[in-house]
C-alpha cells in the first residue's frame, strides 16, 4: 500500500509541476471563486483553512476575505506531536514548521469546530478518499469532521486513491473545473 501511494504521489506531483505557475494561479483563483459562492461557506461563521505549500491552490485570499466578513478563521498547527487549530488573522504571527508550511506561532484554541474545513491534498477521488503527503496529520485533525472540502487542481482528481484504515475521507472536492459531493 505504501509503495502504491508513493507512486501515485510522484505522478500527481509531476502533473501539478507540469501546470506551470501561471496556470496554477489562474486555477487557484477559480477554486477560490467556487468556494466563496458555496452556500455552506457563505453561511459559516467559523471556518478552517490551510496555508498552502507552493504546489497547492492558494486559499489565503479567501481566508482574508472571510476575516473581513467577520468569520473566525483557523488553520492547522502542529506542536508536541499533535495537531489542532490555530487562529489565523491580523496580529497572528506565523512561523514555518519543519515540514515546510506556515502555522500560527501561538498555541491553538481548544474545542474549535469549524463549520467548513478546507483540506489540501496531493490527490482525491470521487469517493472522498484523500492522498496526503504521508504524515497522517490531516487524518488526525479531521476525525469526525463531516464538512471537509478537498481542495486541489483538476489534474489531481483520480479514479481511485488507495485507502488505509486510518485514512479520513472528505465530503466534497473542489477544483477549478467544478465542485462535487463525494460518494461517502
TrEMBL record:
Gene3D superfamilies: NagB/RpiA/CoA transferase-like (3.40.50.10420)
GO BP term (any one): folic acid-containing compound biosynthetic process
This enzyme's EC code(s): 6.3.3.2
Pfam families: 5-FTHF_cyc-lig
Keywords, ordered alphabetically: ATP-binding, Magnesium, Metal-binding, Nucleotide-binding
Binding, substrate: 51, 56
InterPro entries: FTHF_cligase (IPR002698), FTHF_cligase-like_sf (IPR024185), NagB/RpiA_transferase-like (IPR037171)
UniProt binding sites for ATP: 5-9, 130-138
Coiled coil: none
Protein family membership: Belongs to the 5-formyltetrahydrofolate cyclo-ligase family.
Catalysed reactions, as listed in the record: (6S)-5-formyl-5,6,7,8-tetrahydrofolate + ATP = (6R)-5,10-methenyltetrahydrofolate + ADP + phosphate
Protein name, as recorded: 5-formyltetrahydrofolate cyclo-ligase
PANTHER family named among the record's database cross-references: 5-FORMYLTETRAHYDROFOLATE CYCLO-LIGASE, ATPASE INHIBITOR/5-FORMYLTETRAHYDROFOLATE CYCLO-LIGASE
First-tier enzyme category under EC: ligase
Needed cofactors: Mg(2+)
GO molecular function: 5-formyltetrahydrofolate cyclo-ligase activity; ATP binding; metal ion binding
Organism: Winmispira thermophila (strain ATCC 700085 / DSM 6578 / Z-1203) (Spirochaeta thermophila)
